[in-house]
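Subject: complex prediction, re-run

Hi both,

The earlier run crashed halfway through, so I resubmitted it with identical inputs.
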Amino acid sequence: MTEHSPEFTLSCPTPLETHATVQMAHGGGGRLMRRLIEDLFLPGFGTDPAGNPPHDSAVLDVPAGRLAFTTDTFVVSPLVFPGGDIGHLAVYGTVNDLAMAGAQPLALSAGFILEEGLPIEMLRRVVDSLGHAADEVGERIVTGDTKVVDRGPGDGIFINTAGVGLVPPGVNISPRRVAPGDAILLSGDLGRHGIAIMSVREGLGFEGAIASDCASLAGLVAALVQADPDVHCLRDLTRGGLAAALCEIADGARVGIQLREASIPVSAPVDGACELLGLDPLYVANEGRLVAFVPAQAAERTLEIMRAHKAAPEPAVIGTVTADHPGTVELRNSLGGSRVVDLLSGEQMPRIC
Amino acid sequence: MTEHSPEFTLSCPTPLETHATVQMAHGGGGRLMRRLIEDLFLPGFGTDPAGNPPHDSAVLDVPAGRLAFTTDTFVVSPLVFPGGDIGHLAVYGTVNDLAMAGAQPLALSAGFILEEGLPIEMLRRVVDSLGHAADEVGERIVTGDTKVVDRGPGDGIFINTAGVGLVPPGVNISPRRVAPGDAILLSGDLGRHGIAIMSVREGLGFEGAIASDCASLAGLVAALVQADPDVHCLRDLTRGGLAAALCEIADGARVGIQLREASIPVSAPVDGACELLGLDPLYVANEGRLVAFVPAQAAERTLEIMRAHKAAPEPAVIGTVTADHPGTVELRNSLGGSRVVDLLSGEQMPRIC
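This time it finished cleanly. Structure:
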């Protein structure tokens, strides 16, 4: 190569808080990015920079077995909402996806896209939340990445988390195992997350009454599979709510699903907000609820285990799996009437996770 | 719950190409998202939808051992550039990060953030590229996610890929192992990727002469560690180029690095473009080049293996590791002069990966 001048280099260290907002240079692979990693990300994740010279991959010891692997991207708007922020959501969302395969979480990755101009203070808050949530579920953030993009609509942060976990021997949880006769249990009331987001976004003033239910379901799932490794299928309720989760399973397993409307818990504030907004709580997102499909004879025992766990605040048997009408979810009301629950075209509310 | 009307549901199937562009509803967890997954993502990734009812995690059988885990987010602008597009980059970038730990790739995740208004045709192109690149490196996309965000600056697609791989027994590649006396080898010429991107972005007209070097390094690394499992450290050159990679390693391993400028290959078109743009090729990104740190006595053998591999088009021994001046990278020119190579504050060019 020919010689080039070294003017591009900067030899004095720059403290992170010199800039109040994220600059394009924070994503450039240079000194400012290193500051961001060493002064903000690593402390937020509880990682000692001195003990960890940067490497392109994390390396984990694993036993022989089945590895669960999942990814989820979070684009929620606003970033902070009653009950949590995008940092909590990024941990719980991916931990819950691992848990739905019966896996015990092993490690998480975190990939950030930051918008130029994002206040460093907001980034610090989100990274700290992410670190605390990971800590709470006994999970480590072992690898990460940061990119900075031009100013956009002002949302500021998108986060992708991927996760790996180990499926305990004997556990075999999959939509394929759902069978006619299975009981369907729901761990708690519907719609808190979606309504909490909508309330802030639309300035509806429900903020005091309705907080997001976002939470880890890993502990609840560990208790369920320990008591009965024969759980057939688990699914957490996110985009599209209970309706989307059940439609997908009915279709994938080629079974029918019958729900009893009166047994599905919805809190009075969520029900009221749904009436006001013209929303159906069946389709509103949760971020800390699951449905479990278990053999009929295991339903009572599963309900007892849920009742004993804080992550299942209002568990209920809400329906059964049938051989009739494969691919169809039917909701029966207390007067004997029924309607088919179908997938929406899109989503009642965008950007909720 | 109280009863709600079913007007939100849509009972007729909607072909994907009914919409020429991505809608918010494509990210909503409903019918349109399902169309996108079944008609575009799964075929692009070579996955049979019928054989794979949707599940929250992929489950892989793994032997006992060391699992490498990494993540990378891609925000390159423009999405398509000479030599590839963001889909190729998303596969090679993460596969290369796994390879830098000596790992054989096992599986990838893909998380997409799509901007409302993105042409479906562009999305299909990128997803197909991603699928083809994965296929080429013998890698599977086993889990994915899609979110849609409001119209922004018009970039259209951000992709996160995370990857898992297995580190073969006996292989121990890490910056910690870099030691005084090690030879430093570079697999090929500098700066092609960054200059290819800049050329399109700035309309410089180098497009014919300079294509991105983006490529998988997994095969090259497999050949290197098979021949000599004692490779000390590997690092691919991305943001911040050769300079950032070496500064980080010198700092992390607390060693000095001495480079011979005349031995560092830079093609004439890249050198010319750098002169014109006022850039230093040492800092310009590649996406298909690596540096290897090996014991001095292994340098010739390593060079031979590189010469025999298509992913190392112009391999060279470019320097040595010293005990003097720990944390410092020094570049010596042919006249006997030298300069310190330091991290830039940011990046000479943003959004290149």
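Residues 120-136 of chain B form the longest helix (17 residues).

- K.
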